[in-house]
Design goal:
Elements lengths: L1 E6 L4 E8 L2 E9 L11 H22 L9 E7 L3 H18 L3 E5 H7 L12 E6 L4 E8 L2 E7 L5 H11 L7 H8 L22 H17 L3 H32 L3 E5 L6 H14 L2 E3 L11 H13 L16
This protein binds adenosine-5'-triphosphate, magnesium ion (MG) and fe (iii) ion.
Magnesium ion (MG) binds next to loops.
Length: 332
C-alpha cells in the first residue's frame, strides 16, 4: 500500500509517503516567521500552511518517485493542535481523497508521536511505556497496541517543551529555545545551581513551579550582577535541563516499576534533547530497560509519523468520512 501522510497541527507543514510500512519521503517545511514574536502566532501559522502544503506534497511525491495515482489512502492529523492549522491539513486531505477517489484516514497527533517508534527497527513490543514530551504535552502512556493507549500520568500545568521554551525566554534566548538550552547545557555544570523538584505523589508532572523559581532566581542574580546571565549561561542551562530531566525520568522509573514494564521509550520534540537521551540510556543500565529513542527527524513534528499511523489504520480498514472535522483537543 502507498499512504500519503499530512501533518499541520502547529508550525510545521509536512508531507510524507509510506510504501508498505516503509517511509520513503518526509518533507518538512518549517515556519520561521514566529521567531519575530517569540512564539507561534496561530493566524500566521495557518496562512503559511496554506502556502506550503501543495509544494510539500509535490516534493514528497517526487522524492518517493511515485505518481499520485498510485496513492491508496491519505492520512492527516485531525488533532490535537491549533484549529486553524489543523483545518488546512484536514481540508487538503479531504480534497485529495475526493479527487483521487481514495479513503481518508484520521490520525491523533499524540498517538502518532508514539507510533514514530514503528518507522524503523528496532521496534518496541507491546505493552510498552512511552514518555511523550513535546511543546504542548507531557504524558506517560501505557501502549497496549497500535491504537490502544492509556495515559497513566500527565502534566498538571506546563508541558516539558514549554518549560524549556519559557526558560529560554527568561534567559533572553530566541524562540524556540529548547534546542538552544540543550546546546548551552552541553558546555555547563549541571550541579552548579539547584532548582526545585515538585513533590507530586502520583505519576503526574508539574513544571510551573520550576518556571517561577527560574524567574526569581534570574531576577535576584541580575540585580546583584547585571552580567550574571552572560557569565553563567552554560551552567544555568545545564542546571535547569538536568532538573527537567530528573523530574521526567523519576516519574518514568516509577511508572515502569508500577506496571512491571521493561520496554521504555521517549517521543515528541523534547526527546530530541541530548541530555534526556543520555540520561534515559544511563537509567536503562541500572533499571534493566530496553530503551527506544526515535531518530531526530521523527521526534519533532513530521508527517512520517502520520503516514505510519495511517498505514496501521489502513491495514485495519479504519477510514474516516468526508464529514470529519479537526479537533483542537482530542482524546486518544
Ligand atoms: P504537541 O506535539 O504537544 O502538539 P508540538 O507539536 O508543538 O506540540 P513538537 O514539535 O513535538 O511539539 O516539539 C516541539 C518542542 O520540542 C518545543 O517546545 C521545543 O523547544 C522542544 N525541543 C525541540 N528540540 C529540543 C531539544 N534539543 N531540547 C529540548 N527541547 C527541545
Ligand atoms: Mg514546531
Ligand atoms: Fe507534536
Amino acid at each position: 500500500s502507498v499512504i500519503l501522510g499530512i501533518e499541520s497541527s502547529c508550525d510545521e507543514t509536512s508531507a510524507s509517503v509510506c510504501i508498505d510500512g516503509k517511509i520513503v519521503a518526509n518533507i518538512i517545511a518549517n515556519q520561521t516567521i514566529h521567531e519575530l514574536y517569540g512564539g507561534v502566532v496561530p493566524e500566521l501559522a495557518s496562512r503559511v500552511h496554506q502556502q506550503n502544503i501543495v509544494p510539500a506534497v509535490h516534493q514528497a511525491i517526487n522524492v518517493a518517485k511515485i505518481h499520485k495515482k498510485q496513492i491508496d489512502a491519505v492520512a492527516f492529523t485531525r488533532g490535537p493542535g491549533l484549529l486553524g492549522s489543523l483545518l488546512v491539513g484536514t481540508c487538503f486531505a479531504k480534497a485529495f481523497a475526493l479527487a483521487n477517489n481514495i479513503p481518508l484516514i484520521e490520525v491523533n497527533h499524540m498517538q502518532a508521536h508514539i507510533l514514530a517508534h514503528f518507522i524503523e527497527d528496532p521496534k518496541p513490543t507491546f505493552p510498552f511505556l512511552c514518555l511523550t514530551v513535546s511543546g504542548g504535552h507531557t504524558q506517560i502512556v501505557l501502549v497496549k497496541d497500535y491504537f490502544d493507549m492509556e495515559i497513566v500520568g500527565e502534566t498538571l500545568d506546563d508541558a516539558a517543551g514549554e518549560a524549556f521554551d519559557k526558560t529560554a525566554k527568561i534567559l533572553g534566548l530566541p524562540y524556540p529555545g529548547g534546542p538552544l538550552v540543550d546546546k548551552h547545557a552541553k558546555l555547563g555544570d549541571p550541579n552548579r545551581f539547584k532548582f526545585p523538584e515538585p513533590q507530586i505523589a502520583d505519576l503526574n508532572f508539574s513544571f510551573s513551579g520550576l518556571k517561577t523559581a527560574i524567574l526569581y532566581f534570574v531576577r535576584d542574580k541580575v540585580a546583584e550582577n547585571p552580567n550574571f546571565l552572560e557569565q553563567n549561561m552554560d551552567d544555568i542551562c545545564a542546571s535547569v535541563q538536568s532538573r527537567i530531566i530528573s523530574i521526567l525520568l523519576n516519574k518514568l522509573k516509577k511508572a515502569a516499576l508500577q506496571y512491571g514494564i521493561k520496554d521504555v521509550s521517549i517521543a515528541g520534540g523534547v526527546s530530541a534533547n541530548s541530555g534526556l537521551r543520555n540520561s534515559i540510556n544511563a537509567m536503562a543500565q541500572t533499571e534493566g530497560w530496553n530503551v527506544f529513542i526515535p531518530k531526530f527527524e521523527y521526534c519533532t513534528d513530521n508527517a512520517a509519523m502520520i503516514a505510519i499511523a495511517g498505514y496501521y489504520k489502513f491495514l485495519k480498514g479504519d477510514f474516516a468520512g468526508q464529514d470529519v472535522a479537526p479537533m483542537a483537543r482530542m482524546p486518544f
